[in-house]
Amino acid sequence: MKTILLVCTGNICRSPLAQVLLQRDLDEAHPGEFRVISAGTGAWDGASASEGAYLVSLENSLDVSMHRAQLLTRELTAESDLILTMARHHRVRTLEVGGSGKTFLLGEYAGETGPEAEVADPFGGDINVYRETFEELRDLVARAVKRLTAEFHESGTGEQ
Question: How many domains does one find in the chain?
Fold first, then answer.
């Protein structure tokens, strides 16, 4: 089983939403082949997902109610096969704790370039800001799954 780590700042908004989206999409494409986890570069261990992330997840038939934030550590980067970050400064921190050779911005991994490769933090915004972030993440995750599927089959580890 391959482990994918998603990283943002507090691990209460972007990365939990991306985590449930990516896990759902990968479970549909490759049941039992991927485990998706998330962490934050400045997370308070044990914090719940933000209210906006919780509400937007429910609106989209997902659930982050059981999510608990965790701080990005060397152990998490070591156990991860692929690390996808929301912003460039998250990538820098991930590289500092051992993520070299397997860390990408989610947007870049999905084919975006420039400023569009970063996912803005919705924290403190109203529900519409969270909805916009969710839509952006849904698009990026769908494109990332296509790339993962291609790489999965190319490496010969896929059964399909």
Answer: 1
